[in-house]
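Researcher: Watch the backbone:
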Amino acid sequence: MTTRFFERAALGTSCSFVVRLDEEEPGRYFDQMVDEFNLMIDELDLAASRFRPDSEVSRLAANDGVAMVVSDLLYDEISQAIRASIITKGYLDPTLGQTISELGYSKDFDLVKVENQDGLKIRVVMPSGYRSVVLDPDARTVSVPPGVLLDLGATAKPHLADRIRDSLEGNYEVDVLVNLGGDISCFSSDQTNPWYINITDDQSLNIDSPGEILGFSTGGVATSSIKKRSWSKGGALQHHIVDPYTGRSAVGEIEAVTVLAGSALDANIASTATIAMGSFGFPWLESTRLPAMVKLRDGSSRVLGNWPRRRDTQGVSV
């Protein structure tokens, strides 16, 4: 077997996949896989990006509360976001788009990083809540209150990783690992030949970063962190994980959470909600019984569930 790798910048992050191929025909279908990968990413971006004025979520926000027919893709992603909100007691709220924009994350993060917002005041915008999103499964319409901008980032990207994994594995019968900015979904046909994933200490995608190697065959891995997407506004440090009950960046002792689950979607739901919940996050995560590693702001860490034994490494990543 040989491996082939493809990477591109999209969705405000680095997106990649790696497949194991038969050595006799290593590149026969690889170009088709790349095309499929790119198409699925571009379709989600057009449907769900809150930074694009031509996206479906932007048009929905501008529809004055009137029900709008949406694509099957967006309908499914909104349904997944509502499911996530229900199982996290409302902490993963899909109606936070305007809230997080007012906190300073109103454009692609590469632009946020170089913008000086420290002297600007913060206007707290409370979300309308997932119950304000009305789905009509027969008409395939969605309505939100006037001006409500959906933010599907906590669910749509990891769900896309799962969908790409399933598509490539199903169409080409290959072992595959998809990594969309740290939302990882993988499949290995041989449990004795897992994928090795570097959980880096600095939450980066740099292969030279120190971290922990996990051998993982099939399922999802997700890391949520307050460090990776943070900026200063209103004289205080802000980050992208918002507590919907305060309208501000979540506070607490947790700095980062990595979760293993049956899918990248469920892993990221758990990791993001744990931080959003603040002091309630750790006991809630514990109740899920998912394997997880929680890093605290004081530098210490705790593991939950059947977390693999630690093995320090450097220079290996996917």
Notes: The chain is about 30% helix and 30% strand. The mean pLDDT is 91.
